[in-house]
Amino acid sequence: MEAVRMGVIGIGNMGTEHCKTLISDEITELKLAAAADLRPERREWARKNLPKSVRIFESGEELIHSGTCDAVLVAVPHYQHPETAVSALQNGLHVLCEKPIAVTSGQARQMLQAAEASGKTLALMFNQRTNCLYRTVKNFLSSGRGGEIKRVNWIVTDWYRTQRYYDSGSWRATWKGEGGGVLLNQCPHQLDLLIWLCGIPRSVSAFCHAGKWHHIEVEDDVSVYMEFENGATGVFVTSTGDLPGTNRLEIDCEQAKIVCENGTARAWLLPENERTVCFESSNPWYQAKTEEIVLETDGKNEQHPGVMKAFAAHLLREEPLTADAEDGLRALMLSNAIHLSGWTGKTVFIPFEEKLFERLLEQKIAGSVQKTAQDRTYETDHRNTAAIL
Amino acid sequence: MEAVRMGVIGIGNMGTEHCKTLISDEITELKLAAAADLRPERREWARKNLPKSVRIFESGEELIHSGTCDAVLVAVPHYQHPETAVSALQNGLHVLCEKPIAVTSGQARQMLQAAEASGKTLALMFNQRTNCLYRTVKNFLSSGRGGEIKRVNWIVTDWYRTQRYYDSGSWRATWKGEGGGVLLNQCPHQLDLLIWLCGIPRSVSAFCHAGKWHHIEVEDDVSVYMEFENGATGVFVTSTGDLPGTNRLEIDCEQAKIVCENGTARAWLLPENERTVCFESSNPWYQAKTEEIVLETDGKNEQHPGVMKAFAAHLLREEPLTADAEDGLRALMLSNAIHLSGWTGKTVFIPFEEKLFERLLEQKIAGSVQKTAQDRTYETDHRNTAAIL
Q1: How far is B226 from chain A (nearest CA, A)?
Q2: Between chains, do B279 and A162 touch, taking CB under 8 Å as contact?
Q3: Which of A130, A170, A384, B3 is the most buried (most CB within 10 A)?
Q4: 3-class state of residue A78 by DSSP
C-alpha cells in the first residue's frame, strides 16, 4: 500500500488536533480516511472542517467495521482505550493509542495479548520521545560515557491548571471518568521518559494528595521516592497547582551529572569514575575538575507528527516505532504503582499486586461523584506538550 | 567587661579554625583566653601557634574550672557536647556550641534546662544563617510578599567525601563515635536553615541508606519527604557520594517561586495570589505573567566570625544571637526524626517518640565497630562551609 488509511476514534481535544495533523501536508504516509465520535456536535465539527473524503461515524465500532481504514488512532477517554483498541486489533486494524495506554495495567495486558493474537501493531503516542532534548540525554546515557546512574531527581510542575480546567468536563478528574489525576492525565509522558532513560524502578514510595489544590476527587500533587535495580534512587515531584512551575530533570551518574532545564541539557563530565575516585583518592574532600558541556541536539522536536510518521514507516517498511505497547504497559505499571503506594501508605514493589490495585480503584470509582459540568472541547490544549521542555 | 574571655574546648578541625579566628584582628569583643584538648599533639600545636597569653588545658573540665574564661566554645565530638556544655553552664560560663547541639534531642533538652537553670547563654554555631543568600530569602519570606509556602525542594549533595575522609578518624561515621552520618555531620546547617525558612515539618518519611557509597556503618545517602503544618510538602535530598554535587533550594509560594542555586537567589513574582487565580480565572491553562528578579543581598557572608561577634554582642549588650539553644534543639529534632523514619520505615510525626529513637540508637551503638583508623586533624575542612552556597 502507498499510504496507510487512518481512522481517528474520538474527536475531543487531542483527536481534533490529530485530524488536523493528518489532513495537513506534513504526513504523507498516513491518510485520514475516517473519524468517529459519539457526540453530534463533534461530528458536526468534523463534517465542516475535514475533507469530504473523510467518512464520519457515530461510534468507534462503526468505524472499525466500516472497512475504510487500515489503522486507527485511539483518542477516546482513557477508560475506553482497551475496548476500542482490542476491537480494532481483533478486526485486523493496527492501533496507535493515545496515552495512557489504559487505566489499569491488567487492561493494558489484555491489549498486548490482542495485538499478539492478531499480529497487528499496537503503538503508543509517546510524543515526548521525539523531543531532541530527551533524545540527546538518551543517547548520552546509552553511550556509557557517564557510567551507571546513581540518582535521578525530576521536578515537573509546569502544567498549572485552574479549577476551570477541571470543571470543563464531567469526566475530568474523577475516579469514574479518568481513573486518576495528574498521574494519568499529565504525567504519562514523563513516566515513560523516566523509564526510557533510567529503567523502571524496583520500588516506589509515594505521597499522593487528592484535591489538594483544586476541588477534585483525584490527586493533583504527588511526590515519589524510587529505588532502581542497580541501587540508584530517585525523586519525582509533580503537581498541577504550582505557579510558575518547574521542569528540571537531574540525572547523576558515576562519571557525569546531567541537568535538563529551560530547554537545555547540560552535562558535567568527570575525568574519572567517581566509584574509583572514592576509594583511590588520597584527598578527603576531592573536588572533581569537571568539564561542563551543553549536550548538543539536532533541534528536531516532531511531537505527534513524528510519532505518526514512525507508525506509518513501521507498517510500511518495518522501521522502529517511537514507542510500542510494552512501553505503554511499563509506564502505566509505574503510574499504577505510584497510586497504589499513595493509597496504601506503603512502599510498592514492581511488579505489584494488580488485583489489589484494581480492587482499591473500584472502591474509589464506587464513591466517585459524577460532576454536572458541561463538557467542552478546547482546541489548544495539547500545544502545551509540544514545547521543548 | 570590655571583651569576653573565651575558651575553646576541642582543638580538632573546627576548634583549630576557631582559635585562629579568635586570635585574629577580626573579633574584638572576644578574646581567646584558653584552649583545651585531650590529645598531647593538639596541645603541642596550640602552644606553638597560639599567643603565650592563651592558657592550654588537658581537658575541658580543667578549662571550665580554671576561672580563666567567661564563655566557652564547644568544639569536641558531637557526643561530648552535652556534658561539656552542661558543665560549663553549671559553672557559670556562657556556651557557644558547635553543631549539632547533641546527638539526641533528649540530651539537647538537658542542655537547655542547664542554661535555663544557670541563667547563662547557650548559643549555636549555625554560621550558615549569616550567609547573605539565605538571609535575603528569609527576609523575602518574612515580608509576606510571596504568601504562604506550598512546596520546598532542596537537593544538597555538594559535599562529596572520599573513603579517605571517613578513614581519617576512628570515631568518624560510626554510631558510637558520631551517632550518624551525613545527617549529623554535614546537614545540621541545612536542617536549621530549612526550619528557619519554612518552619519545622509536621512529619517526615525518610529513606536513609547506610554505607551506600562508602565503607561506613552510618547513612551517606538520604531522601526525605516532608509535610508542614500549613499543608506544604517538601523533599530534601542529601548525600556525600554525588560528584559533582548540587545545591539547589526551591521554595514555591502562593505568589512567588524562589530558587537558590550557584550563589544566586532568584524569585519569580506573580501579579496575583495563585490561590485566588485558581478559582477565579476563566482560563483553564492560565499562564502567569511572572516578573523574574534576583533577590538582592548585602553581599555579607561572615560565617563563623559573624556568629562569634553576635555571641559577644549578646553577652555584652543583649543583642540578638545568630541562633539560640531552641534553634539547636529544633534542628536536632528534625535530624533525629529523619533517622527514626529511615530506621523504622515509617512516617514519623514531630514531636516524635524520643525514647524509641534513643533505644534504636543504643542498639546501633551496641553493634558499632570501632575503626582502627589513625585520627588526623585537617586544617582546611570547614572552609568548605564558608562558600556562599
Answers
A1: 10
A2: yes
A3: A130
A4: helix
Chain B closest CA to A29's CA: distance in Å? Answer: 33
Interface A-B: count of C-beta contacts within 8 A: 151
What percent of chain A is modeled with pLDDT above 90? 92
- Looking at chain B, how many residues does it have? 389
Which candidate in B164, B240, B243, B283 is best for mutational testing of the A interface (most A CBs within 10 A)?
A: B243
Per 3-state DSSP, chain A is made up of helix, strand and coil in percentages (nearest 5) of: 40, 20, 40
CA dist A78 and A330 (Å) reads: 16
What is this model's ipTM? 0.94
Predicted local confidence at residue B169, as pLDDT: 85
Which triple of cell numbers denotes residue A193? 521518559
List, for residues B179-188, the tens digit of each pLDDT value.
Answer: 999 999 999 9
How far is CA B9 from each of CA B32, B72, B329, rounded to the nearest angstrom? Answer: 11, 7, 21
pLDDT band for position A171 (cuts 50, 70, 90): confident
Answer yes or no: are the C-beta atoms of B183 and B331 closer than 8 Å: no
CA proximity to B219, closest of B108, B381, B335, B56: B335
Partners of A380 on chain B (C-beta within 8 Å) are: 285
A207 vs B150, B233, B241: nearest CB: B233
Residue ranges of E strands in A240-290: 247-253, 256-261, 264-269
What pLDDT score does B370 carry? 66
Give the separation between CA A72 and CA A84, rounded to whole angstroms: 9
Residue listed under C-alpha cell 554510631: B175
Min Cα distance B273 → chain A (Å) is 9
User: CA geometry: angle at A80 spanning A79 and A82, to 5°?
Assistant: 95
pLDDT for res B369: 81
DSSP state of A70: S
Are the beta carbons of A188 and A236 closer than 8 angstroms?
Answer: no
- Considering only CB atoms, B165 lies closest to which of A227, A244, A284, namely A284
Residue with cell 555584652: B316
Q: Average pLDDT, stretch B109-123?
A: 98
Q: What is the pTM of this model?
A: 0.95
Q: For residue A199, with 0-12 CB atoms within 10 Å meaning exposed, 13-18 middle and 19 or more buried, which class applies?
A: middle
Nearest chain A residue (CA) to B215:
A279
Dump pLDDT digits (tens) for A318-328.
Answer: 999 999 999 99
Identity of the residue numbered A143: S
**3-class DSSP state of A272:** coil
Dihedral sign (CA B370, B374, B377, B383): negative
**B34 grid coordinates:** 584558653
Contact: B155, A250; criterion CB under 8 Å: yes
Asked whether A212 and A241 are in contact (CB, 8 A), the reply is yes
- Identify the bridge partners of residue A124 per DSSP, sorted by sequence position: A97
Contact B223 A235 (CB under 8 A): yes
Q: How far apart are CA A126 and CA B368, in angstroms?
A: 50
The pLDDT-based confidence of A126 (bands split at 50, 70, 90) is: very high
Residues 6+ apart with CB under 8 A from B58: B36, B37, B38, B43
Instruction: Tell me which of A243, A275, A384 to substitute to probe the interface with B (most B C-beta atoms closer than 10 Å).
Output: A243
Query: What span, in angstroms and rounded, lies between the C-alpha atoms of B325 and A227?
Result: 37
Sequence-distant (6+) residues with CB within 8 A of A285 are B160, B161, B162, B165, B380, B381, B384
- Name residues whose C-beta falls within 8 Å of residue B372's C-beta, 6 or more positions apart in sequence: B170
Query: What integer pLDDT is reported at residue A388 of this predicted model?
Result: 40
Residues 6+ apart with CB under 8 A from A1: A70, A316
Give the span between the Cα atoms of A259 and A389, in whole angstroms: 12
Specify the amino acid at residue A87.
S
Please tell me the distance in Å from B25's CA to the nearest CA on chain A: 29
How do residues A40-77 score in pLDDT, each as one tens digit? Answer: 999 999 999 999 999 999 999 999 999 999 999 999 99
